[in-house]
Here is the input.
Amino acid sequence: MELIIPRFLKIPNNSFFLFGPRGTGKTTWLNNEIKNSLLVDLLQPDQFRAFTAKPERLKELVYGNPDKKVIIIDEVQKAPELLNVVHSIIEEKKGHQFVLTGSSARKLKRSGVDLMAGRVLNMTLHPFIAAELEGKFDFEKALKQGLVPLIIMSNDPEKVLNSYTALYVREEVQMEGLVRNIGGFSRFLEVVSFSHSSVLNISNVSRECEIERKVVESYISILEDLLLAYRIQVFTKRAMRATIQHPKFYYFDAGIFRSLRPKGILDRPEEIDGAALEGLIAQHLVAWNAYSGSQNNIYYWRTRSGSEVDLIVYGPEIFWAVEVKNTARIRNEDLRALKSFKEEYPEAKLYFLYRGKEKVLIKDILCIPCVEFLNKLKPGHKEIA
Here is the structure.
């Protein structure tokens, strides 16, 4: 019997898109949360052919099953023409709820998602967060294998992790015809992994890949559309000091980052561990924010003089500055950037996350073990005390 771990994502009353990278558990979550639904599975060749050839067949199916008020269309991006039919049925206001799942938003962006604005919510299922796993959360394993349900719930996580990206490239990129040169794209995936948890310099990535800058920019957009990566912008509100303009780049999961990051004799393990740790914190904050209603924005802060705070969470009721260090000790120099940020933004709450075991308050900076911070990060909570 499959172990079901409750997720923090909640079913809304309205129709909604449910996005999420492959393996994050969309189907398992829907099966657990929704009963007595009508399913259109576009991964099934016969259903794919039927609904792409005649999208209006969806109306026939819905009207032929009046007892089914919830209609799930799985991998809706494979037949974006169905969105017009869905929109038409929703406009009739007969109480139907549509759940439109997908692992890629790329085709939908070009095929009428704006038409659905205000009628269909956008929701995302992320990798597990620590508070969902509760006592099953293993911090060290999370740093190495990540928290993608498909991977960590398997009998051989290492094997599944190593094959995950290859499957993604083949099924999502190659089959959808998103890029012409799969070899070049695969090389890009490795090269851009060096930018994980770092400021993204597209010119440098282009030079390392030996690929034109505009192609690299399109590859990054593909990663974001496939929900494999995201960028966060620099925090500039009411800035008194000059800040840089380049965004930071993150793969969506620490384990996926590790599987893509080339390793050699000259690579320091602590450098990779540090990037994985910051990425693990960032992916938790992104998921926590999404499940809390996405009222906040996540940034980072870096001045032209080089002072940097890893993550800034800013919203109507929250203003956090979060520094992440792969260290078991707290040194004064590690707190310097947070102190500089506090001088400019005295309203901010300061958090220093580290690999130690004690929670201490140093002036205005709350120093918390990473494990404790992650376990206490729950949707709706506005304080990490």
